[in-house]
Write a structure and sequence with these properties.
- The chain is α+β, with helices and mostly antiparallel strands.
- Helices cover 56% and strands 7% of the residues.
- It has a four-stranded antiparallel sheet with strand order 3-10-5-8.
- Helix 5 crosses helix 10 and helix 6 runs antiparallel to helix 8.
- The radius of gyration is 35 Å and the shape is elongated.
């Protein structure tokens, strides 16, 4: 149950029934004595050896011995493990969906298709021959069941408050739903069920029931138009989909598709209205004069749709208006088509111009860089490295937006900014067991570390020097992507050894606990992204959290004990686990996957790194 990797296998635990530690190994119990008797140059910072003055009035755990600090770390690890298990237990509150959950997102996207089907189907009620068909029954039942179940999900989905927090309490959710969509959804769904019940009565065969149901259908057919108000929900669904898109070209495609769908939907409504106006006059209406009154529904609809599209394009209309009502409709549609066509062209043009401007800026900067390097006679190998690195950073910035490009981040308050920084860097830092323990035991400390103790993302090009042997270490490094080559001279060896450090690993952890000079030299095999933790700032932050201090103190003692056992000559900047793996370049088998081929290429590149010595 040890949260720190160094504890595993070294601290035998025996539960005493109260969540405590019944027994510690002799090695851990004698840490204090070993520390006093040690004359090794591998020594901890004073803040980890002796409790500082401002901590002496704190809870008694701060003043514990080294063995007690380790026992406290293990006890807290077991407590956190049991707490996390209790959180995973099913509860009534967990039946509430998060507004950003996959289930809710899938339901909203499904609602987009259901809403579009309903918006297409409703105006087609002017075609009487569609009533009673199998397709009509399937569409009616599908939409009715979907919107009925949507009421249930709306009462079981959390929402974002004005301050940005997620409200998951069912009482608050129900109250908000009553104030917003309840008096809109429930009457319309109830009306749909009443219409469906009338259809069932009409199919029963009772003459009185047939008369009543027919009258009910005629009354509710007009009331069904209220379902068009569901079109207001389309905006929420589209906003959810737009939140998932972070590509300029996909945004352009979405804008074009949305505008085209809007134009087609408007033409669909106008075609149905045009058919209804022509059918109203059985003598002079265009339906009679065109000879389509007794035709099939598909032919009637296509003729009306052709007329509708002709009003938006230079195409000729197959039908000319004859009655006053038809002429008024034609004039109104021509004016509407002029406005919609102008807005559509303007929207697509502005979106494409924005995308082209961004691409033009990138091409211009690349051309200026090449001219600068050529005019200043920069050596060709250095120019190639610069261009390659700039392309890497540009592609990285294109995939992941840099904070400097987002002006709205300056609007954030201090607490919001700190919370954002914690969410950005926490996944990388928590890969290390110590930082994972900090996150479990003291989240405020983790937030302050992410906001104040990090240098942010540092990008290095291929063959760039990260640090060299003998330099004083100041930061602990986390490798987010790419690969690094580490070269050092093992104790008792005459030839240096080269190891590879892959993404997700870290190095120079010792600088957090003790004064440290780099034992070896590290270079980049490929373009890498590194996150640095400033050791001095980390220790300053630790001094402000008396509850987390004994846990970190216990971890510092464990690290010191591990370093002492290995001996000063066997220590490196790499993690102890990495040294045990000993990933020195050796003969490799044939690789079949792309990931294996990339690993093999990096291993080959490891042998080609040029070292200064």
């Amino acid at each position: 149950a040890a949260i720190v990797a160094g504890f595993a296998g070294k601290v035998p635990l025996e539960d005493d029934g109260q969540g405590g530690i019944a027994e510690l190994s002799v090695k851990i119990k004698t840490l204090g004595q070993d520390l006093e008797e040690s004359d090794s140059s591998v020594s901890l910072y004073p803040m980890w050896v002796e409790v500082e003055e401002h901590f002496r009035t704190s809870p008694t755990e701060v003043n514990n011995s080294p063995a007690e600090c380790l026992a406290l770390a293990l006890r807290q690890s077991k407590s956190n493990s049991s707490d996390s298990k209790s959180i995973d237990r099913p509860s009534f509150c967990q039946t509430v969906l998060h507004p950003d959950s996959t289930k809710r997102l899938t339901w909203d996207i499904s609602g987009l298709f259901v809403l579009m089907i309903e918006l297409i189907w409703l105006p087609m009620q002017v075609f009487d021959r569609l009533e009673g068909t199998v397709g009509a029954a399937i569409i009616n039942w599908t939409t009715l069941l979907y919107w009925t179940w949507d009421i249930v999900l709306s009462c079981s989905t959390g929402y974002y408050t004005p301050v940005g927090s997620v409200e998951m309490r069912r009482r608050a959710i129900l109250l908000r739903y009553v104030k917003t969509w309840f008096f809109f959804d429930v009457p319309i769904v109830s009306l749909d069920w009443i219409v469906k019940a009338g259809d069932i009565l009409r199919d029963g065969g009772d003459s009185a029931g047939i008369a009543r149901s027919a009258k009910l259908v005629r009354i509710t057919r007009v009331a069904r138009l209220l379902r068009l108000m569901r079109f207001m929900k389309l905006r929420r669904v589209l906003y959810t989909i737009q939140g998932l898109i972070d590509s300029e070209w996909l945004t352009l495609v979405l804008v074009v598709v949305k505008n085209l769908a809007t134009i087609v939907l408007i033409n669909h409504f106008l075609a149905c209205i045009w058919f209804g106006v022509g059918r109203a006059d059985e003598v002079e209406g265009w339906v009679t004069k065109a000879g389509v009154r007794g035709s099939d529904v598909s032919e009637q609809y296509l003729v009306a749709l052709q007329w509708s599209f002709a009003q938006f394009t230079p195409g000729a209309s197959p039908i000319q208006p004859d009655t006053i009502l038809e002429r008024c409709l034609v004039v109104s549609v021509l004016a509407l088509g002029l406005v919609i066509a102008t807005c559509f062209v303007s929207s697509v043009t502005s979106t494409m111009a924005a995308v082209w401007t961004a691409n033009r800026y990138s091409c211009t900067q690349q051309l200026l860089l090449k001219k600068f390097l050529n005019q200043n006679q920069v050596p060709r190998d250095l120019a190639c490295r610069i261009n390659h690195y700039v392309d890497f950073v540009a592609e990285l910035r294109h995939k992941r937006v840099h904070a400097s490009k987002v002006d709205y981040l300056s609007f954030l308050s201090g607490p919001l900014y700190i919370e954002l920084q914690a969410e950005l860097y926490k996944p990388t830092l928590c890969a290390h067991p110590c930082f994972g323990q900090i996150h479990l035991y003291s989240k405020p400390m983790m937030h302050e570390i992410c906001a104040a103790a990090l240098n942010g993302h540092e990008n290095y090009a291929k063959n760039d020097l990260i640090f060299h042997q003998g330099a004083k270490a100041k930061n602990m490094l986390f490798l987010k992507c790419g690969s690094l080559a580490y070269r050092f001279l093992p104790a008792g060896c005459l030839r240096p050894k080269t190891l590879k450090l892959g993404a997700g690993n870290w190095c120079t952890e010792a600088v957090l606990w003790m004064p440290w000079d780099h034992v070896g030299t590290m270079k980049a095999i490929s373009e890498v992204d590194v996150i640095s933790v400033m050791a001095s700032t980390f220790r300053d932050i630790t001094r402000n959290y008396c509850q987390a201090y004994p846990i970190l103190r216990g971890y510092a003692f464990d690290f010191w004990q591990e370093a002492k056992e290995r001996g000063e000559g066997s220590l490196t900047d790499l993690p102890f686990e990495q040294m045990e793996l000993d990933r020195e370049l050796k003969s490799q088998p044939v690789y079949n996957t792309n990931e294996a081929l990339l690993t093999h290429a990096e291993d080959v590149q490891l042998s080609l790194v040029q070292w200064d010595d």
